[in-house]
Amino acid sequence: MTTIGVLALQGDFREHINAIEDLGLSTVPVRRARELHGLDGLIIPGGESTTIDKLSRIFEIAEPIKEAIAGGLPVYGSCAGLIMLADRVVDPAYDLQGNPQQTFGGIDMSVRRNAFGRQVDSFEEDIEFKGLDKPLKAVFIRAPWVESVGENVEILASVQVPSLDATRIVAVRSRNLLATSFHPEVSGERRVHELFIKIIRGEA
Ligand SMILES: NC(=O)CC[C@H](N)C(=O)O
């Protein structure tokens, strides 16, 4: 049986649990390193990347997650989860000691947090997503975007940013790692989770 862990330190992990259970698979909330054992995949939810970063280090699960990623565990991150999967954050937050936020990394990309600016902190858009025949309803909540990707990163979706008169990347895949700057888990959209399950099963 396929079991997917959902990192449950902070953020909208319940929505991801519901999405996976809707698709008939079992889920495990993950807070401790030992809960990573035996998982077929892991989801890092939306929330606040600085908090997920801090709590994951306090709970001593940050290093085990990095090792699992390096070992090939399929991981999907939405929004703050996308930030946590990025090798580089171009505008990191700093703690009181002046240390920048850290990520688990894994995807060769640079991300910008809260990138869509204040007026449009949160918005919904139907977007084209590579491999899907119908547009996908994407909910952006103080969302990051991907500024640049390395050679081995596949771009799955981009959106037009009117203030820039340009597009920005909002969904990527790199080997077993999938990341979206929007939240399919909150809109009843299940096709991104379906894609993640296919990646886990080696079908995509
Ligand atoms: N909806 C979200 O996950 C927002 C992400 C948040 N702005 C961050 O930096 O982590």
Total domain units: 1
CATH architecture tag: 3-Layer(aba) Sandwich
Q: CATH H-level name... which superfamily?
A: Class I glutamine amidotransferase (GATase) domain
Please state the average pLDDT score. Answer: 96
Bound molecules: glutamine
**Within the CATH hierarchy, at the fold level, what is the topology?**
Rossmann fold
What's the level 1 CATH class? Alpha Beta
Order of helices and strands: EHEEHHEHEEEEEEEEH
SS element count, helices: 5
What is the number of E strands? 12
Which strand-content bin applies to the residues? Answer: 25-35%
Rg is 16 Å
Features:
204 residues, alpha/beta, Rossmann fold, 7-stranded mixed beta sheet, 3-stranded mixed beta sheet, 5 helices, globular, binds glutamine, pyridoxal 5'-phosphate synthase (glutamine hydrolysing) activity, pyridoxal phosphate, glutaminase activity, EC 3.5.1.2
Polypeptide structure, described:
With 204 residues, the chain is of the alpha/beta class. It has five helices and twelve strands. The strands form three sheets. A seven-stranded mixed beta sheet has the order 2-1-3-4-12-11-10. A three-stranded mixed beta sheet has the order 5-6-9. It is globular, with a radius of gyration of 16 Å. The two termini are 18 Å apart. It binds glutamine (GLN). Glutamine (GLN) binds at residues 46-49, 79-80, 83, 113-114, 141-142.
